[in-house]
Design brief:
The protein has helices spanning about 1-10, 15-30, 35-60, 80-90, 90-95, 110-125, 135-145, 150-155, 175-185, 205-210, 210-225, 235-249, and strands at about 100-105, 130, 160-165, 190-195, 225-230. Helix content is about 60%, strand content about 10%. The structure holds adenosine-5'-diphosphate and magnesium ion.
Amino acid sequence: MPDLELNLKQLHLPTVGAHYREYAEEARREELSYEEYLGGLVNQEIEHRRDTRTERWLRESRLPLEKSLETFDRSRLPTKVRAAVSTLIEGAFLGRTENILAFGNPGSGKTHLLAGVAQELIHRGHRILFQSCQLLVQDLLAAKQELALGKALKSLRRYEALIIDDIGYVQQDRAEMEVLFALLADRYENRSVMITSNLPFSKWESIFKDPMTAAAAIDRLVHHSIILELNLPSYRLEAAKLDQQGGDE
Ligand code: ADP
Ligand code: MG
């Protein structure tokens, strides 16, 4: 039916176009009702769209995809954090524009945990971007120099959550700190951020250069937030120790 195929194409229903014949045969064989036939086809179209969107969002997310919850040993987590993770992957915090703040020493699993949660959320239909704080700040600074900071911040708003990995890891100069602050202010009560940091709040003055800016940044972040404290020994260090013990035997 050339007309039908043309029309389906015009309506952007490629999956219906690809499957309507085979579904029709099946419907005749199984004596399905018209409603069942149409319902089945439409379902197929929707599922296909969801799958391609998820793939696209995973690709653009810049997430380290090998750091998933499947490869993360949750039994290592403190009980409170473990319970929080089960809730986080349901994604309701995004609707409430709450922030996730993961603290802990290097190697405690902050990046892996947030990346894993984010990957799960993308599968559930949320759009998330992962960036190291350092790269993000460089991008924003470049945008600012081109008088396009506002535009850059706006384009980040398409992501329900922005992972800012390793905030405070590299000392920033004043201009860098200012764009970081502008980003946090832009997202406040508007979009979520998910942050990892080796530095407790008490040391954030060194990130934001002066106590007032640090206090203002912390205030915005914490106002609606879920704090995950990973006071754990380094996973890398423990794995290395286990390796050595294994080697001694
Ligand atoms: P952090 O961001 O806190 O410095 P990472 O998330 O980068 O730590 O973790 C360090 C390394 O240890 C990574 O290779 C990570 O995959 C691994 N790792 C940490 N915690 C776990 C865990 N609970 N289960 C599996 N791998 C882990
Ligand atoms: Mg990390």
